[in-house]
Amino acid sequence: MAKNKITQQLFKALDGFAIELPSWGFADTGTRFGKFFQPAAASTLEEKLHDAGLVNNLTGACPTVAVHVLWDFVAGENPRNTAKLAKKYGVKIGSINPNVFQDQSYKLGSFCSPDAKARKAALDHTLDSIAIGKAVGSKHLSMWLADGTNYPGQDNIYRRKNDLQKAFSKIHDAMDKQWAGSTLLIEYKPFEPSFYHTDIADWGMSYLFCKHAGKRAKVLVDTGHHLPNCNIEHIVALLLSEGMLGGFHFNDRKYADDDLTLGSIDPYAVFRIFDQIAQFTFDTGKDPKLAYMIDQSHNLKPKLEAMVQTVDEAQKLFAKANLVDRKALAMAQKKGDITGAERLLRDAYETDVRPLLADWRKGKKLAGDPLAELRSSGVINDLAKVRTQARKDRGEVQSSSYA
């Protein structure tokens, strides 16, 4: 294929690639042991949206921001005000994330709790979240549950499964009636914070709950939510073939849900995921219309740098996957040429796409290297000064104590 044609196809693919930023990724967060504060971290919703707008301006690929209802909306205030605030910074509100794990009433679970009051509170909050999603023009409700148990016999797993299935059906029906064009994304996680059993522990369980819920429900794959050595791209291929893949939470990990910047540990694994998506499109001619989202929380790396670094890496790996010669790959596979087929993937993966990305960005009047642009701009130091003073003016005291 001619070089110019390849470049044109790649640029077209990049034009259609968008990845959502998480509002919580710009704020101070902690571990079980404490918080490590960053002077430039966002402390208010407006600061989060400002930072998201800055990343979007640098990368040209992040038009939406995922929000957590309890963290990003004020009770009693019109949620459309949040949408207007996002527009001020050149972004839109993306996926809506209900919070059914933070309140003390959820100690034994939310939708799966043995306490009927806790189950009702979780459902009421999620229904409120649906109304917010409709009001702000979002398209996704993203559900992650901390539900599970730590000891054998702690609770009735059959009862928990049935109650959760009923809850998802009610949520799906409410979305179907009230929120046109929306999708229910159901996430899974093998462990943490529950370690004996988790109520949605893997993609198969998520798939079953989605199928029972209805046509709007799809599986959400978080790349950090798998047991060691799990073949995530295999899961992706199966879900694509079933029309049940809704989207991704992108991060990287060495051990479990480490929330590291994308590609920092195993960039080839992310490439293989994008490869399966590109293969599906090539084979079927269909755009799976996936929601690409970042779910990372950085305590040590500067938050703005970490986000720009992840977006840049995602664009590079996405571009590499779109360079695979699919026709040649099909021929090698048909002949049983294992080495030849693998080399086609490796050749694409090892291609230095940075010059191509720089050209694409310059065509959109963006910096050729967004991370270098950010690091040389001095904006993080400027924000640190302004935000440190703003916190003092508001009388906020930063404390890492969880006592």
Question: Outline of this structure?
Answer:
The protein has 403 residues and is α/β, with parallel strands linked by helices. It has helices at 3-15, 45-59, 69-72, 80-88, 116-136, 157-178, 203-213, 232-241, 267-284, 303-321, 326-335, 338-349, 354-363, 370-377, 379-393; strands spanning 21-22, 30-31, 34-35, 64-68, 92-97, 140-143, 148-149, 183-187, 197-198, 217-222, 245-250, 291-294. The chain has 15 helices and twelve strands.
What is the topology?
Elements: H1 3-15, E1 21-22, E2 30-31, E3 34-35, H2 45-59, E4 64-68, H3 69-72, H4 80-88, E5 92-97, H5 116-136, E6 140-143, E7 148-149, H6 157-178, E8 183-187, E9 197-198, H7 203-213, E10 217-222, H8 232-241, E11 245-250, H9 267-284, E12 291-294, H10 303-321, H11 326-335, H12 338-349, H13 354-363, H14 370-377, H15 379-393
Parallel strand pairs: 1-4, 4-5, 6-8, 8-10, 10-11, 11-12
Antiparallel strand pairs: 2-3, 7-9
Helix pairs in contact: 2-10, 5-6, 6-7, 8-9, 9-10, 10-14, 11-12
Describe it for me?
- With 403 residues, this protein is of the alpha/beta class.
- The chain has one domain (7-393): Divalent-metal-dependent TIM barrel enzymes (TIM Barrel).
- Helix content is 49%, strand content 11%.
- The protein has 15 helices and twelve strands.
- The strands form four sheets. Strands 6-8-10-11-12 form a five-stranded parallel beta sheet. Strands 1-4-5 form a three-stranded parallel beta sheet. Strands 2-3 form a two-stranded antiparallel sheet.
- Strand 11 (245-250), helix 9 (267-284) and strand 12 form a beta-alpha-beta unit.
- Helix 8 packs parallel to helix 9 (267-284) and helix 11 runs antiparallel to helix 12.
- The radius of gyration is 22 Å and the shape is globular.
- The mean pLDDT is 95.
